[in-house]
Specification:
The complex is a heterodimer of chains A (215) and B (254). Chain A has helices spanning 41-49, 81-91, 98-107, 122-133, 155-165, 178-184, 202-214, and strands spanning 2-10, 16-25, 30-35, 56-61, 67-68, 140-144, 170-175, 187-192, 195-199. Chain A is of the alpha/beta class. In chain A, the strands form two sheets. Chain A has a six-stranded mixed sheet, sandwiched between helices. A three-stranded antiparallel sheet of chain A has the order 2-1-4, covered by helices on one side. In chain A, strand 8 and strand 9 (195-199) form a beta hairpin. The longest helix of chain A is centred in the C-terminal third of the chain and has 13 residues, at 202-214. In chain A, 46% of the residues are buried. In chain B, helix 1 crosses helix 4 and helix 2 (24-46) crosses helix 4 (96-126). Chain B is globular, with a radius of gyration of 19 Å. Classes of the chains: A alpha/beta (215), B mainly alpha (254).
Chain lengths: 215, 254
């Protein structure tokens, strides 16, 4: 469970990003938050994941800390891929032997490769990071604009891994892409005027967002 | 207490990225203090300055330069720990203090190795006697490492927010090379200068190191109570800044 109790936050320049909000996300829910660009998606993702604290109020979580999907930067660019994955696995609390092997398998790469991380394409790096971070046991997966890596050859396997993980965990996707939210979520909110407004479906959410943009 | 395996993982990651697979960076860690000692000897010879303690000039300079190197390296590396690893802070279970402990320990171990090898090498090479009070010498190096780490911790949040600080601080530390007793001892100075320079905690520490290392020198400025107080104040200031500053959100308070 993630519970927001009068939680509010604002940017360093004083711009309000979240008005005082009371809300509960139950474990196992698939929540989609529709939000336009520049309205605080990343800030909200970091708040919900527990990386940042609200400036006012509280956000409490039960169970292990949430995993933010798509953290490529945990794989250090200056290292060889194998040691970099081992190091990242240790920092994620995973087995440094089996977890990198699983990530190599997911990415379709040879575990014996002598390449350095900075020789990989951004997509290859994101596939490896996804293959590693998805293994971390958690009650919540949080996605900031991207759920799975942008590699068509890995889409089916990545979705299978997500579905497997969602058998025990919840998912919060924050995005401006209503198609992405519709694909993965079944409960929706719109982040508009720094407020989280519940909507029945994603089409209604898009309408609310369009009205806000027009206003 | 932070998990030891997490700290160890951070240290190994830093070793792999800082030193890589080649030995060049390791050698560089030794070249810097040794070259400073060499330049010091050349400068002393050029200006015909006699050293104030009855020992070889290289050993006198090494006992001033090495503690300065320990201080400087501890400040700069601990200060950069967050800036170079800011994404790691986003991972669950990793906090700023884990980075601080990992970087301070790694820098402490690296500089301890440099100090040990340089001083031992010089002692054997020059046929000099070893430290007069080894335990005190180790205690002073420990104090200087902790002081440098505390100053680095004070600066870490500022360096995270204002990246130019990582370039300014090494420049700002340069005057300490000249006012911390690297090239002179307190006993050479008038009393009022001794008092003035003692506001810099590195000065009495380096002077006490010479007191502990050379049997023929007694430091007139060192006070264990004052030094411990300065160390306590530095850590208290660091913790106060980390807890109270408004822009530390998400870095410390987890």
């Amino acid at each position: 469970m993630i519970e927001l109790s009068a939680a509010a936050t604002w940017a360093p320049n004083g711009k309000l990003l979240l008005t005082p909000t009371n809300l509960i996300f139950q474990t196992g829910e698939r929540v989609g938050i529709l939000s336009k660009t520049g309205s605080g998606k990343t800030t909200l993702a970091r708040l919900l994941a527990g990386i940042d604290l609200p400036k006012q109020g509280r956000i409490t979580r039960t169970g292990p800390a949430a995993t933010i999907l798509g953290q490529e930067n945990i794989i250090h660019s200056y290292m060889h891929i194998g040691p970099a994955l081992q190091s990242a696995a240790e920092l994620l609390g995973l087995c440094p032997i089996s977890a990198p092997l699983a990530a190599f398998y997911f990415a379709g790469m040879d575990p014996q490769t002598r390449l350095k991380v900075d020789q990989l394409s951004p997509v290859q790096k994101s596939v490896l990071a996804f293959g590693l971070s998805i293994q971390r046991p958690t009650n919540w997966l949080i996605a900031d604009d991207r759920v799975i890596p942008n590699d068509p050859s890995r889409t089916a396997l990545a979705n299978a891994l997500i579905e497997h993980r969602l058998m025990t965990a919840g998912l919060i996707v924050i995005s401006k892409n209503h198609g992405l939210l519709a694909r993965y979520c079944d409960r929706f909110y719109v982040l508009t005027s720094a407020s989280l407004m519940p909507v029945d479906d994603i089409r209604t959410g898009q309408t609310v967002l369009d009205m806000d943009r027009a206003a | 207490m932070r998990p030891a395996n997490l700290i160890w993982a951070l240290i190994r990651r830093e070793i792999a990225t800082r030193f890589g697979s080649g030995g060049a960076a390791y050698i560089w860690a030794f070249i810097v203090p040794i070259s400073w000692v060499g330049f010091g000897i050349i400068a002393f010879t050029a200006i015909d300055r006699a050293i104030p303690i009855s020992t070889h000039p290289a050993l006198f300079l090494a006992t001033g330069i090495l503690p300065y190197v320990v201080f400087r390296q501890s400040v700069t590396y601990v200060m950069r720990s967050l800036q170079t690893n800011r994404r790691l802070i986003d991972l669950p279970g990793i906090a700023l203090f884990d980075l601080f402990i990992a970087y301070a320990l790694l820098e402490g171990l690296t500089t301890a190795l440099v100090v040990m090898l340089v001083l031992t090498g010089l002692t054997f090479w020059l046929g000099a006697t070893g430290p007069d009070a080894l335990v005190n010498v180790l205690a002073i190096f420990l104090f200087i490492w902790l002081l440098g780490s505390a100053v680095g911790l004070i600066l870490v949040i500022f360096a995270h927010r204002y990246s130019a600080l990582t370039r300014i601080v090494p420049l700002a530390l340069r005057p300490f090379f000249w006012i911390s007793g690297v090239f002179f001892v307190a006993a050479e100075l008038p009393a009022h200068w001794q008092v003035m320079l003692s506001f810099n905690p590195l000065f009495p520490a380096i002077d006490e190191l010479r007191d502990a290392y050379f049997s023929s020198y007694i430091s007139p400025v060192f006070s264990a109570e004052t030094s411990l107080l300065s160390l306590g104040l530095a850590f208290a200031l660091a913790l106060g800044i980390l807890v109270k500053l408004p822009f530390q959100n998400g870095v410390v308070a987890r």
